Amino acid sequence: MFALDDSSVHDYQVGVEWEVIDNLAVDVAVRAGYRSMLIELDDIDDINTDIDVSGPFAGLQVHF
Asked: Could you tell me the CA-to-CA distances from 35 to 4, 26, 54 in Å, in that order?
């Protein structure tokens, strides 16, 4: 989290990962969790905004 005067930014992520395949040629994992990102700007260069992007996520990760 970062805060300056009345403005703040925070970004966090919580999740789990399961390695499905783990060998020399390829690694495959399944990921799932929750992420939250909040941006509140109060009169920074005449910009005022409140952005809140939050929710669950899921994905497939492949390294080769």
From this structure: 23, 27, 6
CA distance 29 to 27: 7
State the residue range of the domain holding 44.
2-63
pTM across the whole model: 0.67
Tell me how many domains the chain contains: 1
pLDDT tens track of the chain, all 64 residues?
Answer: 655 667 888 999 999 999 999 999 999 999 999 999 998 888 767 778 899 999 999 999 999 8
58 Cβ contact list (under 8 Å, min separation 6): 30, 31, 32
